[in-house]
Amino acid sequence: MNDMNPRAVIGANNPPDPIDAICAQYEGERMEAENWLDGTPVENEDQMKAVDTLRKAMREFRLGLEAGQKSATAPLYDAYKAEGARWKPSIDDAKRIESGLVSLVDGFKKKLAAKKEAAERAARAEAARKMREAEEAARAANAADIEAQRAAAEAQREAEEAQRRAAEASKDKVKGLRTVTKYQIEDHRAALHDIATNDRDAVTAFIEDYVRRNHKTRAINGVRVWQEKEAF
Questions:
Q1: Where are the domains of the chain?
Q2: What is the Cα–Cα distance from 116 to 157, expressed in whole angstroms?
Q3: Three-state SS for 2?
Q4: Could you tell me the pLDDT band of residue 1, with boundaries at 50, 70 and 90?
Q5: What is the pTM of this model?
Q6: How far apart are CA 155 and CA 81, in angstroms?
Q7: What is the 8-class DSSP label of residue 5?
């Protein structure tokens, strides 16, 4: 090894990083642009032309970076999409099977849930009846009458047992069945009035978004539209 034939270094032949290459290409204009950006506004045409020239260069700088980004990420994104497409048919088919099975048992589960809810209501009603009987027996029982006291104790035991059965019935739910809240708008005018009265922020957000999307295409009462010049 000598000065005429230096030792090879791994990576020495690699091309420069494209970000570094693009940034280096516009380094002078970028530094000059930063010097202009000191908070002092332009005051004459020569300054304006100089800034416009830098603006053009910085636009080319940005476009070069965006093009480089697209070139670098395109293979990764294409690979991502291809892999997603490879899995999608199997995932979609699994979802179809799952949805079909859910639909298959939907009707029966609703009927079973209704049956269990009726049983729960009956158990609770029975528990309430037994408790009333136990309370009445306890009030009516003579402390000196052993049989009356025994009957009151038995009534209390039956009431407690009925409560236990009611509690068990409340836990006996149909698995795979959930409660969902649905809605239907029956009167749009009434709904709008309610929202305007109780949620003015929502109405304001809608108005501002609607005006933003439509102010160029039609006149809107209460909205002033004008044009003015601005740098770009």
A1: 183-213
A2: 25
A3: strand
A4: very low
A5: 0.56
A6: 71
A7: B
